[in-house]
Each structure stands twice: as C-alpha cells, then as structure tokens.
Amino acid sequence: MSQLMPTQSQGAGNFATFDLSRVPSPCFVVDEVALRQNLEILHAVSQASGAEILLALKAFSMWSLAPLVRTYLSGACASGLWEAKLAKAHYGGQITSYAPAFKASEFDEIANLSDHIVFNSPAQVARFGAQAQQAGAAIGLRINPQHSEGGVEKYDPCAAGSRLGQPLSDITKLPDLVSGLHMHSLCEQGFAPLARTVEAIEPFLQAHKQQLQWLNLGGGHLITRPDYDRDGLVQLLTRLRDTLDVQVYLELGTSVAFDAGILVGEILDVMDNDGPVAIVDISATCHMPDVLEAPYRPALLGEPASGGQSVSLGGPSCLAGDVIGAYAFDALPQAGQRLAFLDQAHYSMVKTSTFNGIALPSIAIWNSQSDALRMVKQFDYGDFESRLS
Ligand SMILES: Cc1ncc(COP(=O)(O)O)c(C=O)c1O
Prior knowledge:
- The protein is of the alpha/beta class.
- The chain has two domains: 50-257, TIM Barrel (Alpha-Beta Barrel), CATH 3.20.20; 261-386, Lyase, Ornithine Decarboxylase, Chain A, domain 1 (Beta Barrel), CATH 2.40.37.10.
- Helices cover 28% and strands 23% of the residues.
- It contains eleven helices and 17 strands.
- The strands form two sheets. Strands 1, 11, 12, 13, 14, 15, 16 and 17 form an eight-stranded mixed beta sheet that branches. An eight-stranded parallel barrel has the order 2-3-4-5-6-8-9-10, surrounded by five helices.
- Helix 3 links the parallel strand 3 and strand 4 (94-98).
- The longest helix is centred in the first third of the chain and has 18 residues, at 32-49.
- The protein is globular and about 65 Å long.
- The model has no long low-confidence stretch (mean pLDDT 96).
C-alpha cells in the first residue's frame, strides 16, 4: 500500500498497566477506550466542520469493534469488493469504493453496495460509469494533485509515473458523469502538508465547482495525534465546503486506530552471534510486514530510554531477514518472557499471513478503564490449511 508509512507511537499509554500474560501469544490487543478517544476526536472534527468521516477498512477492519466505530463515523471506504461487503455487513452508513482499476466481473456487485464509486481514470469512468449510475452510486474521479509532500517515493502517490489518480495537468474537462473528486496523497502527516496540497489544487477545484457536489480528501491525516492542528483543519474543511458548495469527506485509517493496540509476543530462545539474538513468536514478515516493507522499527513496550542490554529480535520464520530490530532490555531476556510492540492496531492485523505455517496472532479487546478483557478471535491449524489446497 503505497500510501502508508508507519507512524511513531506516542508511547505505551494505557498499555503500561496491561498484564501481557493475560492473553495467548502472539495476540493483538486493542484498547476500546483508546479507540473511543480517537473516535471522539474525529467526531468532534466532523461536527465542527460538516465533513463526513469514513473508516478506511484497509487500515483497520476489526469488525468486532464496528458497533463502536459506527457510533462516531459516517461509514467506511472500501478498496474493492470484499471490503465493500465487509462494510455493508458490519459498518453500515455510507460506503465509498475506490480501486486503481475495477474488474468487470465484480463491478455490478460493488456498485450496488456503494454510495460513491471513485474511478482512477477517465477510461474507467467511460467503461463503468453508466453501470455505476444505474446502480445509483455517485461517481467520482481520483485526481493526482502533482504536489508531493512525502519524502519516500514508495509512499508518494504524486511520485513521477504514479498510477494513482489522473494527473491534474492532464484534465481539461471532467467526464460528464462525475459529480465529485477524490485525492489521497498524504501519509500520516500533519495539517500543514494538507493545507499546501489544497492550495495547489484549489484553482482546479474552483474552475470545476459547477460540476462538483462532493470532495473526498482521502486519508493520511493524523488528526488524532496530539500535536495535529485540528482548528486549522476545521477552518480549511469549512472554507472548502462553503466556497465550493460541496460535501467534504475524509477517509481515515491510521487516525482511527492510532496508538490503540499492541501486538503481544513471547521470547522463544536467546542465542549469541556477535551479541544477544532473541527469537520471538512474532514474525516481521508474517505479522508486522511493514517492518520490512517500509521499513520501520516498531516501538517496544517498556524499552528503557537509555542504557540496558541491546538485543536483536527476530521472528521464527526461515527468512534470514525476518528481523524486527535491536532493542534495549533492562536485563538479558529469558525464554518464556512476554513483550509487546506498540501501535499495532492499524496496518498489521490486516496484513498478517501464515507463511512458513506460522500461526496468526489471536485478537483480543481490552477495556483499559474496567480492565475487562475478551478474546474475540483465535486461529488454529484449520485456518492455515483452508488457505491452501
Ligand atoms: C485511497 C486511500 N484512502 C485512505 C487511506 C487511509 O490512509 P490512512 O490510513 O493513512 O489514514 C489510504 C491509505 O493508503 C488510501 O490509499
């Protein structure tokens, strides 16, 4: 997923008090209190600005928490048929579907599930627009603002040669069926990059405002991080709504689940090769693939800020590069000891695999206020077997 680049967790938060031995290992634990706090912030932004906020399922589709999510957000955004079905089954509200290209064999079903269909190119509008219209979906076009705010090309939908969205400079006339525009070019960023991006596209928006009824500013806005300029955002969203006379949408993933979950694991063995190397039952490649893909170093719960014993942590797979990183421990860790990586609710749970026959992490919901814990999912051999044949 080009548009995500993992965030730096703000810290252990409520998880500093969580007893890691209460869950099987490995296990994602999501704090519903932290999730609710994020949702309250987003709801307040929505109320103040009139913008509708959708959950980007690609980031966080833990549907056991959908009843909580749908209390605060307007619906969900889907990247294809299966996410659109999940949105319909669990989240309700509005559904916006966007894909770099839709498949003819799936399109009717997607269009019937969706309130908004966002096409990536005028050619896709020409191919499927009439079908979308017949299904009653509003039709949008994703634009490439041609304004880069990210430093990493892999995560920049505005990078040269990008396949994501129609370059703004190539559009003279919008296809007639189009009633809205979509852009997504930020990556877990603050308000200033959004303000600069809007400044870059605003002449285009003003020039086409007669045709526009809605504007979707995508995701990548880390609104729930404490230092985000939410007042600035509300002012911008309100101004866009008023000057363009459009309904504004945001589709947020990271911001919804930011710092709301951990991945608990266990030390399996400690060996030495030029320093201590610990094998854990969390695999970078199977359970936190962004560690290798981004790459990034997830924060470890309770890691001393300075000093301590440096230990290289690696997963149980055969991949030589299944290495999570070097971490400080107060004392050399022992087999059986628990650990947890922070901020793993988004873009980890949705990306796990069973490569090497490695077990999928269980999923638990914790309430940090009441301390109640419920296991919502445990996987077994059958899940591995059923994905193969
Ligand atoms: C089209 C689109 N919308 C929304 C999002 C959600 O972004 P985030 O999770 O950074 O808010 C993404 C992420 O890749 C995306 O590609």
